Amino acid sequence: METRVGDSRMAGAAAGAGAGEPVPAGQESAALPAHFKEIFHLHAVDAAAYSPLALAYIGDAVYEVMIRTRVVNLGNMQVNKMHRHDANLVKAETQARMIRLLEPELTEEEDAVYKRGRNAKSASGAKNASVIDYRTATGFEALVGYLYLTERLDRLAQLVGLGLEKIGEFDGE
């Protein structure tokens, strides 16, 4: 199945329905708003055709925004405190730990995207992480990018939220 931004078939796939099948009520997948696509002149893309490093490139940014949104939502605090909290959650070691805990929850398709990203050869290397954690985190970011580009935003939020829960981010709230 071809995967495209804005393709109505993806809503069914995200909810577990096959291509062309109706999506059960309450299981629709959130997508990018039409006006967002229009303003930014976005066209349909085949996310599966993107290199895993291109998926990781967008996935890194999307995950960063998700985490920063979470940190800002914790309450008004000094920016350096926000950054310390944010930096701990976006570092390769934490991403690698999250995806390892999430692996049993991934669909076959998601697992394949993650493994493509994990196995990709990057020109840059790990700066503050082991090579294994860096590559594992790249796989996680590729999955985030893939889910974003295929507009499976509900699934993306579900996985990241579950990952944060599994690493104890929500403890003590």
Features of the shown structure:
173 residues, Ribonuclease iii, N-terminal Endonuclease Domain, Chain A, 8 helices, 59% helix, 0% strand, globular, disordered N terminus
Largest sheet: none
By CATH reckoning, the class of the domain at 49-166 would read Mainly Alpha
Strand fraction = under 5%
**What is the architecture of the domain at 49-166 at the second tier of CATH?**
Orthogonal Bundle
Helix content: 55-70%
What are the low-pLDDT stretches, counting only 5+ consecutive residues below 50? Answer: 1-27
- Give the number of helices: 8
Q: In the CATH scheme, what's the topology name of the domain at 49-166? A: Ribonuclease iii, N-terminal Endonuclease Domain, Chain A
Q: Averaged pLDDT, please? A: 83
Radius of gyration: 16 Å
Helix and strand pattern: HHHHHHHH
Q: Please count the beta strands (DSSP E, at least 2 residues each).
A: 0
Oligomeric state of the chains?
single chain
Describe the structure.
Helix 3 (52-73) packs across helix 7. The model is unreliable at 1-27 (pLDDT under 50). The chain is built from 8 helices and no strands. By secondary structure, it is mostly helical. It has a domain at 49-166: Ribonuclease iii, N-terminal Endonuclease Domain, Chain A (Orthogonal Bundle). Helices cover 59% and strands 0% of the residues.
Layout: helices, strands, pairs:
Elements: H1 8-14, H2 34-39, H3 52-73, H4 79-90, H5 92-102, H6 108-118, H7 131-149, H8 153-166
Helix pairs in contact: 3-4, 3-6, 3-7, 5-7, 5-8, 6-7
